[in-house]
């Protein structure tokens, strides 16, 4: 079930990329995020393809922890993660493309349903993820455009 979202943003690729790889910045546009930890697969602390990640997200009074990994990383153009959520696996790729008056954010999201998963719950969860992704990326656009950066 692939989905592609595109947003034109008046910002730089570098500015936007910072909003993806820093927990402090991610929390600004993903309000329910409580913790984002990306572990380096090397000892230098740099994020690389294959780096494991942990996300803790709050929904009401309940917090859930999800495991995943970085599956694409080309700073400042491409960031991809795979998340193991309840009933589904989400592959998310965010790419930044220079445009005349800023950057186009292109988000490709592929949702897989593992064998043995509850199909009804998986479909509901897929819809929730797509809706959440759209609303959070709109928030990212709003926050990035309010920052003072020359394009």
TrEMBL record:
InterPro entries with a match to the protein in the record: PH_domain, START-like_dom_sf
Gene3D superfamilies for this protein: 3.30.530.20
Membrane spanning residue stretches: none
PH domain: residues covered: 1-38
Name listed for the protein in its UniProt record: PH domain-containing protein
């Amino acid at each position: 079930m692939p989905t592609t979202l595109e947003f034109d943003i008046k910002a730089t690729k570098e500015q936007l990329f910072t909003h993806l790889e820093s927990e402090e910045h991610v929390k600004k546009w993903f309000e329910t995020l409580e913790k984002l930890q990306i572990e380096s697969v090397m000892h230098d602390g740099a994020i690389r393809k294959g780096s494991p990640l942990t996300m803790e997200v709050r929904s009401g009074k309940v917090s859930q922890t999800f495991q995943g990994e970085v599956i694409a990383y080309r700073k400042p153009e491409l960031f991809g993660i795979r998340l193991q959520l309840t009933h589904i696996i989400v592959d998310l790729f965010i790419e930044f493309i220079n445009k005349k008056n800023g950057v186009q954010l292109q988000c490709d999201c592929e949702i897989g349903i593992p064998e043995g998963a509850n199909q009804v719950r998986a479909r509901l969860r897929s819809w929730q993820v797509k809706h959440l992704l759209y609303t959070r990326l709109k928030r990212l656009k709003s926050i990035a455009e309010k920052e003072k950066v020359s394009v």
